[in-house]
Specification:
Elements lengths: L2 E9 L18 E10 L2 E9 L2 H14 L1 E4 L2 H13 L2 H10 L1 E2 H9 L5 H7 L3 H11 L2 H7 L2 H25 L1 E5 L5 E5 L6 H4 L29
Parallel strand pairs: 1-4, 4-5
Antiparallel strand pairs: 1-2, 2-3, 6-7
Helix pairs in contact: 2-3, 5-6, 6-8
Length: about 230
């Protein structure tokens, strides 16, 4: 039986949409996190949500032990938020390196990151993309107003969307996304690598980039440094 688990987190830090470097906004303040499971032998999705980062970390440990754990930017954000909130840097680093961060896998192949919503849109999850885009900017306001149910529903929708995207990539052996020119791009992907394997993929040509991001910058937090 193949079990897939996907996690994501929400934070209460107010970060403008135009900001690309979130480092100065750390430590990240954990708001809630969710994890979704699917199994090759059962239909539907099992879902759990936590407002305690330690409990989510324990569930993540179970997910890794029982199958494959995936995220979208879990290496550069999700596990950073958990490390900031729990102080369990060693555990977070170990889990981060063992799990499969789909965005990091793409980054290692291309030298630049890709957003979840651009891939979800490419795969045709248009309704989910629209709702998530609308609600992303509302989370901090909901947190101030104590609207935990809305935050939980948003977290659930985002986590399940990541799971659906992972399933699409693995079923089709490819990835589809909307590129910076607004066009549909496609690429064959035979295997999504865990972080520890993605690090060793051949470096893409980044000579055309003026200030390329490095793979090592994604793990600097594991040594207490900045990304």
């Amino acid at each position: 039986m193949e079990v897939k688990a996907v996690f994501s987190v929400e934070i209460s830090n107010e970060i403008p949409d135009t900001v690309k470097d979130w480092e100065k906004y750390r430590p990240f303040k954990f708001l809630c996190g969710s994890i979704a499971y699917s199994s090759s032998t059962h239909q539907g999705v099992n879902f759990f949500i936590y407002d305690d980062p330690t409990m989510l970390l324990q569930r993540i440990n179970t997910g890794i032990a029982g199958g494959r754990l995936y995220s979208w930017n879990g290496l550069g954000f999700g596990f950073v938020a958990l490390a900031d909130s729990t102080g369990c840097i060693e555990d977070c680093a170990r889990f981060a390196n063992l799990h499969t961060d789909v965005m990091f896998d793409f980054f290692c192949r291309h030298g630049y990151p890709i957003s979840l919503l651009s891939v979800a849109h490419g795969f045709g999850f248009d309704d989910e993309v629209e709702r998530i885009m609308t609600n992303n900017s509302k989370v901090c306001g909901w947190a101030k107003e104590g609207r935990t149910e809305e935050i939980a529903l948003h977290s659930r929708m985002k986590t399940v969307l990541i799971l659906r995207v992972v399933e699409k990539i693995e079923e089709s052996h490819g990835i589809v996304w909307i590129n910076s020119r607004g066009q549909l791009s496609m690429e064959t992907i035979e295997y999504l690598h865990p972080v520890c394997e993605a690090f060793h993929l051949q470096e893409p040509d980044m000579s055309y980039m003026s200030d390329p991001k490095t793979r090592e910058s994604f793990i600097s937090w594991q040594r207490g440094g900045k990304q």
